[in-house]
Amino acid sequence: MEIRGHHFLCMLGFRGLGYNEKFVKNMDEIIRKLNNEQDMLIKVVDNVDNICSMCPNNVGEECKIESYLGSVREKDRAILKILGIEVGEVVRYKDVVDKIKENMTEEKMMNICKDCEWFSLGYCLEGIRKLKG
């Protein structure tokens, strides 16, 4: 499985909302699988991943919202830097969750994610609070 950096945080706050029904179903299935198989190996990427496969912004296996200041790819790289994970690295899901617990703060998350269309719902911050709680 391939997961991009920002999706590790999105998964914490996921509440069944998304771009469309296919996207939501895919995201839900991936989260359920990772939560049930925490030793699953994941290749960390900063481009289209398994979650993106059902996203309407995924056009021809390329994200059409990648190339600008504050883009999704920049968010991926900023989050991975905080977690101490390199693009292309293969990691166990539970190790990623541990790194989020240890290294991610609400303040860091707000700085990176504040302009995301989903962030204003507050679910992501709730997710990190629950994880650390």
Topology readout:
Layout (H helix, E strand, L loop, with lengths): L1 E3 H9 L7 H16 L4 E5 L12 E2 L2 E2 L8 H12 L6 E3 H11 L2 H8 L9 H10 L1
Parallel strand pairs: 1-2
Antiparallel strand pairs: 2-5, 3-4
Commentary on this structure:
With 133 residues, this protein is mostly helical. The chain has one domain. It has helices spanning 5-13, 21-36, 72-83, 93-103, 106-113, 123-132, and strands at 2-4, 41-45, 58-59, 62-63, 90-92. It has a three-stranded mixed beta sheet. Strands 3-4 form a two-stranded antiparallel ribbon. β3 (58-59) and β4 (62-63) form a beta hairpin. α1 crosses α6 (123-132). The model has no long low-confidence stretch (mean pLDDT 91).
How is this structure best summarized?
The chain is mainly alpha-helical and 133 residues long. It is built from 6 helices and 5 strands. It has one domain.
Overall shape: it is globular
Low-confidence stretches: none
- Helix content bin: 40-55%
Number of domains: 1
Biggest β-sheet, characterized? Answer: 3 strands, mixed
What is the number of helices? 6
**Quick one: how many beta strands?**
5
Class by alpha and beta content: mainly alpha
- Could you tell me the mean pLDDT? 91
End-to-end CA span: 28 Å
Q: For the largest sheet, list the strands in their spatial order.
A: 1-2-5
Q: Strand-and-helix sequence, N→C?
A: EHHEEEHEHHH
Rg value: 14 Å
Strand content: 5-15%
